[in-house]
Design brief:
Layout lengths: L6 H12 L6 E8 L9 E2 L3 H9 L5 H10 L6 H9 L6 E4 L5 E2 L6 E6 H6 L1 H25 L4 E4 L7 H12 L32 E2 L2 H7 L9 H5 L12 E2 L8 E2 H13 L10 H14 L7 E3 L4 H18 L10 E3 L5 H10 L5 E4 L1 H4 L9 E8 L2 E2 L16 E7 L5 E8 L11 E5 L6 E4 L3 E4 L2 E5 L2 E2 L6 H14 L2 H4 L9 E4 H14 L1
Parallel strand pairs: 6-7, 6-12, 10-11, 11-12, 16-22
Antiparallel strand pairs: 1-5, 1-13, 2-4, 3-5, 3-20, 8-9, 13-14, 15-16, 15-19, 17-18, 17-22, 20-21
Length: 520
C-alpha cells in the first residue's frame, strides 16, 4: 500500500532526503474543518484500515522499480535504495476509538515519526478515513431520522462508485446500528460518564451486499425484484409444482393450488374490494403458508406514496388476520424502497406510517448532500518546534504543537466542549476551573468547570506494531451507539444544531499568538 500516495509526496520526500532532513522528528494531525451535512458532528471511521495499512507499509522491489520510471532521471540511486528500506518502525499513531463522535477542527488521528515517512502517509490515511467517516456519519443521520424501531437495509451496491466504494459503504453504514446493551470486550474499558440510551441507534442493520456480508459478518437481507414477477404470466408456467410439507409433518402439499384456493376466499371478501391485485395475492399465499405452519416474511412497496400505502396495507393485513383468525398477520413487516432520502424519512415521520423496514441505496452510499468530508492532514511540529499554517481565513489556520485532546462533560453527562492542550501541560481534572479560548472567539477568555474529563486519544501503533487490539466491527458499532447517545440533543439534531465549542488552553493560545506575531 506504500505507493497509494500522491506523486508530489515522492518529490517532496526526495527533497527532504537530499536536504538531510528525512529523519527529523515530526508530528501531523488529521481532522476536518466543518461538520458534514450542515450538522455538528461526524463519526470517526476507517481508523482500523489505516492502522493495518501502516503495519504493512513497505515499498516492494517492483514498487521501487516503478518509482524509478516516473521520477526524474537525475534522481540519485541512493534515494531508491533508501526507499527500499523504508517502513513505519519509528512511527507512533494515536487516535480516537473508531466510531467516536468527532467535531470540526479536533484531530481524531495524530502521527509522529521521521518527517519523510509522516508526510508519505498523508494521502493514504486521508483516503482510508475520509469516505469511511462520511458514509458512517450519513448512515447515522438516516438512523436518527428513522428512529430506533425501524430496520434499515443498505442496498447501494449497484449505485456505488465501484466495488471498493460499495464494500466501504456496506461496512461503514453498518457502524453504530443496533447492538447488544452491554459493550463488548475492548470497548467496555472506555471511560463513560453516562450510560447510553438503549433506544438510540446510529446506523444500519443489514446490507444487500453478499460479499460485504461474507467479508465483514454484516447480516444480509433482500426482498424480490420486479423481474422475478414479470418472468411469470400465470401459475401454469410453474412446470415443477412447488410442494411444501407441513411443518407439523405429513405429505407435501401443492402450494400454488393451495394458494389458489385461498385466493377464491380472499377475493370474495369485501375488505379487498378496492385493493390492488398484488395484496390479495400476497394474502392468499400467506394464508396458504400459515395453513402449513409457516409465516410469510413481509410485503415490499417501492413506488407511489409509501407512507399512505403502508397504512392501507396494514389495515388490510389486520382485517385479514382478524377475519381468518391469524393473529400474526397484523404484524407482517412492511418494507419500502424507492430512492429513499433524508427528506423521505422526514415525510414518513410527519405523515405517520406503518413501515417496518427501509432500504436505502443511492442517497446513502453516494452522499449526494456532501460528497466529501474534507479531512486534511497537517504538520503541527517539526524537530521539536511547533509549526503553524498561516492564512487570513481563521478556519484554515492550523493549531500548532503536539497536543492532548480532552472531552469535557457536564453534570448531565453530555459532552459540552472539546479541549486541545499542549502535551506537556498537566491534565485537567473533574471539578477544576479551566481557562480556555474557544475557536472562532479566541479574543475572549472563558472559564468552564467540567464534571468529567475524558482523554480522547489512545496510542494504537508504536515501533511498527499495534500496541492495542483493534475493535471488531460489532465493537465499533457498540461504541458509536454509546458515543452518539451521550450527545446533547441540541448538538445531535440534524438541522441547525447548536454549534459544539472546541477550545484551546490558555498556554496553547499564547503559543498560537506568539507564532502569529513572529510571522508578521
Amino acid at each position: 500500500m506504500a505507493p497509494l500516495t500522491d506523486f508530489y509526496h515522492l518529490t517532496m520526500a526526495y527533497g527532504h532526503w537530499r536536504a538531510g532532513r528525512h529523519r527529523v522528528p515530526a508530528a501531523a494531525e488529521l481532522f476536518f474543518r466543518r461538520g458534514p451535512f450542515r450538522g455538528a458532528f461526524a463519526l470517526g471511521a476507517g481508523l482500523a484500515e489505516g492502522l493495518r495499512c501502516l503495519r504493512a507499509f513497505r515499498f516492494s522491489a517492483a514498487d521501487v522499480a516503478y518509482l524509478r520510471s516516473i521520477l526524474p532521471s537525475t534522481t540519485e540511486d541512493a534515494f531508491f535504495d533508501y526507499l527500499a528500506t523504508l517502513d513505519t518502525s519509528e512511527v507512533t499513531v494515536s487516535a480516537v476509538l473508531e466510531g467516536s463522535v468527532v467535531f470540526a477542527r479536533v484531530p481524531f488521528l495524530q502521527v509522529k515519526g521521521p518527517l519523510l515517512v509522516v508526510q508519505l502517509l498523508e494521502t493514504t490515511l486521508l483516503c482510508l478515513v475520509n469516505y469511511a467517516s462520511l458514509v458512517a456519519t450519513n448512515a447515522s443521520r438516516f438512523r436518527l431520522l428513522a428512529g430506533p424501531d425501524v430496520k434499515l437495509v443498505e442496498m447501494g451496491l449497484r449505485r456505488a462508485q465501484g466495488p471498493d466504494g460499495a464494500l466501504s459503504a456496506s461496512k461503514y453504514s453498518y457502524i453504530g446500528g443496533e447492538c447488544c446493551p452491554v459493550a463488548p470486550h475492548g470497548i467496555a474499558a472506555t471511560p463513560s460518564p453516562m450510560s447510553p440510551s438503549p433506544s438510540l441507534l446510529a446506523g444500519f442493520d443489514y446490507t444487500s451486499n453478499v460479499l460485504a456480508g461474507k467479508l465483514y459478518g454484516i447480516p444480509v437481507r433482500g426482498t424480490i425484484a420486479h423481474s422475478f414477477i414479470m418472468s411469470f404470466t400465470s401459475l401454469e408456467e410453474v412446470q415443477l409444482r412447488v410442494s411444501l410439507p407441513p411443518l407439523a409433518g405429513g405429505e407435501p402439499v401443492d402450494l400454488p393450488a393451495l394458494a389458489e384456493s385461498w385466493l377464491q376466499r380472499v377475493d370474495t371478501n369485501p375488505l379487498f374490494a378496492h385493493a390492488r391485485s398484488g395484496l390479495p395475492n400476497f394474502c392468499a399465499v400467506a394464508l396458504a403458508l400459515h395453513q402449513l405452519g409457516y409465516q410469510a416474511i413481509g410485503v415490499r412497496l417501492d413506488s407511489g406514496d409509501l407512507a399512505q400505502q403502508s397504512k392501507e396495507v396494514r389495515r388490510v393485513l389486520r382485517a385479514c388476520g382478524a377475519h381468518f383468525q391469524v393473529p400474526w398477520f397484523e404484524t407482517i413487516p412492511i418494507a419500502v424502497s424507492n430512492d429513499i432520502s433524508e427528506q423521505s424519512l422526514e415525510e414518513f415521520s410527519r405523515e405517520g406510517s406503518e413501515i417496518d423496514m427501509i432500504g436505502v441505496g443511492t442517497n446513502l452510499v453516494t452522499c449526494p448532500l456532501q460528497p466529501s468530508l474534507g479531512c486534511v492532514y497537517k504538520l503541527v511540529e517539526v524537530n521539536g518546534s511547533p509549526c503553524l499554517k498561516l492564512t487570513e481565513d481563521e478556519e484554515k489556520m492550523t493549531i500548532p504543537g503536539s497536543k492532548t485532546i480532552y472531552r469535557l462533560y457536564d453534570a448531565a453527562g453530555h459532552p459540552f466542549m472539546d479541549l486541545m492542550a499542549l502535551e506537556e501541560e498537566p491534565s485537567p481534572s473533574a471539578g477544576q476551573e479551566l481557562a480556555v479560548r474557544v475557536l472562532g472567539m479566541l479574543g475572549e477568555a472563558r472559564k468552564v468547570v467540567p464534571t468529567t474529563v475524558e482523554p480522547l486519544h489512545r496510542t494504537y501503533f508504536r515501533d511498527g506494531q499495534m500496541c492495542e487490539p483493534l475493535p471488531s466491527l460489532l465493537e465499533v458499532k457498540s461504541h458509536a451507539q454509546a458515543s452518539l447517545s451521550l450527545l446533547n440533543p441540541a448538538h445531535r439534531r440534524l438541522h441547525e444544531p447548536q454549534p459544539y465549542p472546541v477550545a484551546v488552553s490558555e498556554r496553547l493560545h499564547r503559543l498560537l499568538a506568539e507564532l502569529r506575531q513572529a510571522s508578521q
